[in-house]
Amino acid sequence: MYILGIGCYYHDASATLLKDGVVVAAAEEERFTRKKHDVRFPINAIMYCLKSQNITVDDLDYVGFYEKPFLKFERVLYQHLEYFPLSLKTFLSSIPSWINQKLRVMRRIRKTLKYKGDVLFIQHHMAHAASTFLASPYKKAAIVTVDGVGEWTTTSYGVGDGNNIHLMKHIAFPHSIGLLYSTITAYLGFSVNNSEYKVMGLAAYGIMDRKKNPYYKKLLKVIDIKEDGSFRFDLRYFIFQHADRMPSKKLCKLLGGPISSRDSEMTQRHKNISAAVQLITEDILTNVLKHVHKVTKLDNIVIAGGVALNSVYNGKILRNTPFKNIWIQPNASDGGTSMGVPLYIYNTLLGKKRKYHLKDAYLGPSFTTKQIKKFLDSNKIKYSTFKNDKELVHKTVELVSGDNVIGWFQYGMEWGPRALGARSILANPCNPKAKELLNTKVKHREKFRPFAPVVCEDDALKYFDCDLPVPEPTDYMLMVYPIHKKWHKKIPSVTHVDGSGRLQTIRRNQNHLYYDVIKTFGKKTGIPILINTSFNIRGEPIVCTPYDAYKCMMGTGIDYLVIDKFLVKREDNPRDMWDSEKYAKD
Amino acid sequence: MKQFMNGIRQGFGDFGHTIATIVNTVLLFIVYIIGAGLTSIIAKIFGKRFMKTSLHKKSYWTDLNLKKEKMDNYYRQY
């Protein structure tokens, strides 16, 4: 039985294919169209899913969509009614896309895919809940979903038990933790639904002490937080309900200045504001989780929604709340809902036995050795071939320890926003200049943003102050933990200003080449840790194909590309037509 | 000649698109003023609020009670 899940038209369009209860393919549309956070109907991702199993749409038993479009439209109309006449501008700009696109999902599925079977619509937060609970290892768990907004819900909680999910309570739009974070993101001059993680990174440079941070108290005025974690905005501080901007003049006045421009330098004030919104988010989430534990009395917690990508807070959950185990899926934000939909249809609606536990994120397109060789040969690219895996591992370690920057292309592309060893850039964390080197050569990103370390799961506790046992979400770079103090100076390039690291743990059964490279690097240098950053240039999605990878390398300062069993040296090949640098943008 | 005709075609296309945008905007403006405006004013006269905005409740959690429903409900977009 094949079930296809689709999510699109808001941000991060994606598709997932389920075969007999097991996810066999999943990808986001942006990786194919090369447009970051692409919202359009994910035709390329769907085609990849079908092709990966050599099937056509006629083989699909169900297609599921990640929300109820008419319920969402009701909320949009209510916004216009509540805020008439202030909402005129957004009415004129947003309604055409509803009429032409968002309310015609069924027609689009039928017409574009030529699909005649059943199409089911699952509520947005149920799709989130299913994407995390039904892919988790737990038979029973408390569920919390937190994002910007679905149809009406912004935050919900409930219980997953066997095949069933019951979402009991919720908080409705416009009161939303995700939108609070996005409002501050916009206020600081970053792009909404894209750069929230930058605010999270910047927060560490601010005052993370509730009593000393002057903006913490100020921001508490905009939101009423109850002990049970429920909250409500003072809407005078926001205008996203009726405008295409988020902070109101009153919020600007409260924070002591106008909205920052895109290129403005980050001052201590910006850093303290980032720290304040991070602290408030942590306060709310801690209250929510304590309340949910009190209601459900369960030890396991699963979380989904864009706010579940707040890895700084995720690393504190088991210490700050009574929960004992945590699971978050790698694509926790809207992109991941296309996975929740088919799992919900198969397990809950059809009542079929749960068979799936997501154990690695390599669900995207992969390429055979033959395909890659053909690409290299047909483009007259100079390369060498490794005799075996051992040579590949040793040569890669030699290059990384020589402070080269390596493009690493193996296995199927990652599911979710993080590069996890399939489409990664690797570098030496012991080199104190590695951060500058990567920023100069490849990433061109803000100086305050840290690079992430990858460590083998069995070495994690030696270097990081992790929970015990190391939670599975660290495999997906979803937890930030303190780095033990004695290692700060040994791995300066991955130690953030507050002494933390957003680590990825890797297990050999997930990606043996990646694991072996890290272990061998450890044997050679005494530090079994590498820098792992996403294989892309700033403003572009992570690479998907060998073409994307080669183009990215040639346009940047990546020194070598290790692609399947081949090694390509940038300097051996002419740059001319492959210069991708000029496309770099925010 | 072919390039010239393509240019003309492109020009007409752009012109049509601009006209469509103007007509759509005018129509939507009328819908907004008459549809949304009247409804909003009448609702406000009768004290109807479309969003929950009041503060100082004991708890802001509200019932959702979302669980497995009849299969037919999932075929609906609402």
Which fold name fills CATH's third level, the topology of the largest domain in chain A? DHBP synthase
> Describe the biggest sheet of chain A?
8 strands, mixed
* Biggest beta sheet summary of chain B: none
Element-level helix/strand string of chain B: HE
Distance between the termini of chain A: 42 Å
> In one word, what is the shape of chain A?
globular
Give the strand order, joined by hyphens, for the main sheet of chain A: 13-22-21-14-15-20-16-19
Domain module tally of chain A: 3
Notes on the protein architecture:
The complex is a heterodimer of chains A (586) and B (78). Chain A has 586 residues and is α/β, with parallel strands linked by helices. Chain A folds into 3 domains: 2-133 and 337-349, Nucleotidyltransferase, domain 5; 177-328, Nucleotidyltransferase, domain 5; 369-583, DHBP synthase (Alpha-Beta Complex). Chain A is 35% helix and 18% strand. The model of chain A has no long low-confidence stretch (mean pLDDT 95). Chain B has 78 residues and is mostly helical. Chain B has one domain. Chain B contains 1 helix and 1 strand. Chain B has one helix at 2-45, and one strand spanning 62-66. The longest helix of chain B has 44 residues, at 2-45. The radius of gyration of chain B is 24 Å and the shape is elongated. At the A-B interface, helix 3, helix 4, strand 5, strand 7 and strand 8 of A face helix 1 and strand 1 of B.
Keyword list:
heterodimer, A: 586 residues, alpha/beta, Nucleotidyltransferase, domain 5, DHBP synthase, 3 domains, eight-stranded mixed β-sheet, 20 helices, 35% helix, globular, B: 78 residues, mainly alpha, 6% strand
Concise summary:
With 586 residues, chain A is an alpha/beta fold. Chain A is built from 20 helices and 22 strands. Helix content of chain A is 35%, strand content 18%.
Describe the SSE topology:
The complex is a heterodimer of chains A (about 575) and B (about 80).
Chain A: E1 2-7, E2 14-19, E3 22-28, H1 30-33, H2 43-52, E4 60-65, H3 69-82, H4 88-100, H5 105-113, E5 118-121, H6 124-133, E6 140-146, E7 153-161, E8 164-172, H7 177-187, H8 196-203, H9 214-220, E9 223-225, E10 231-233, H10 249-255, H11 268-296, E11 300-304, H12 311-314, H13 317-320, E12 325-328, H14 337-349, H15 369-378, E13 384-385, H16 389-401, E14 406-409, E15 423-427, H17 434-443, E16 452-456, H18 460-463, E17 481-482, E18 500-501, E19 504-506, H19 512-525, E20 529-534, H20 546-555, E21 560-563, E22 566-569
Helix pairs in contact in A: 6-14, 7-11, 8-11, 9-11, 16-19
Chain B: H1 2-45, E1 62-66
